[in-house]
Design brief:
Layout: H1 17-31, H2 38-45, H3 49-55, H4 59-77, H5 86-103, H6 107-117, H7 122-137, H8 145-160, H9 179-191, H10 199-203, H11 205-210, H12 213-229
Length: 232
């Protein structure tokens, strides 16, 4: 007698939205956006697609909700002390987003899409509100608030894009390649450039090899903050 193939055992306990999003983030971290399918998520949670749709919605809704979950947690953790200055608060928010995107390489692209496509969503509003209040506290003129906050947000997104996982990338560069080896190879290539034609590239070879991404990121924030204080 032949027997039918065993079906995945379904869970008996009630599935929550939080459990679904936790599993979705895990799939994204492991394999990027391509790894997050309703089928893969259903198998991981031992549930049906209907339960996922009921709690979260379609795949695009899953991606947006996963982005919101990670960003909200990062911003909630970025709480400077009561004695912190407006600049301290901006640096805390910026570093929270930098670290979140470093830990979740899929997040840079999704965060950018959220801000561009959904200006009234909780991710966009949450980031601009946290940064905007400090822009006001810095003494930036009211007529420059939007430009100042946008400059900071755009810098943060641009700076962290180096850590993004780009779906469909055919460059042949391994996104998990060793950072030291990557910059060593880059420096070697720069040193082979004609020094008369590219004097600047030769001058920064050592700096590029030894730089710290986090410190470089904070330097950019400092430069912008210094510029904002001159708008008074």
């Amino acid at each position: 007698m032949t027997t039918s193939a065993r079906r995945p055992q379904r869970r008996n306990q009630v599935l929550s939205r939080e459990q679904i999003l936790h599993a979705a983030v895990g799939l994204l971290d492991a394999g990027g956006e391509g790894a997050l399918t309703v089928r893969a998520l259903s198998e991981r949670l031992s549930t049906g697609s209907g339960a996922i749709a009921y709690h979260v919605g379609k795949r695009d809704d899953l991606l947006d909700a996963a982005t919101e979950t990670v960003v909200t947690a990062a911003l909630a953790a970025a709480r400077p002390s009561a004695a912190a200055t407006p600049s301290d608060e901006i640096r805390a928010v910026a570093l929270a987003l930098f670290d979140a995107i470093t830990a979740h390489r899929w997040l840079a692209t999704r965060l950018t899409l959220q801000i561009v496509r959904n200006p009234v969503g909780p991710v966009t509003v949450g980031i601009f509100e946290r940064i905007g209040r400090q822009v006001e506290a810095l003494g930036v003129p009211r007529e420059s608030w939007f430009d100042a906050a946008s400059t900071l947000v755009h810098y943060i997104l641009g700076a962290v894009s180096q850590n993004a996982r780009i779906e469909g990338d055919t460059s042949g560069i391994d996104p998990k390649a060793d950072r030291g080896e990557f910059f060593a190879a880059t420096s070697t290539a720069w040193r082979e450039l004609d020094p008369e034609a590219y004097p600047f590239m030769h001058a920064i070879v050592g700096q590029a090899t030894e730089h710290d991404d986090r410190e470089q990121f904070l330097t950019g924030i400092a430069v912008i903050l210094d510029g904002l204080t001159r708008l008074r």
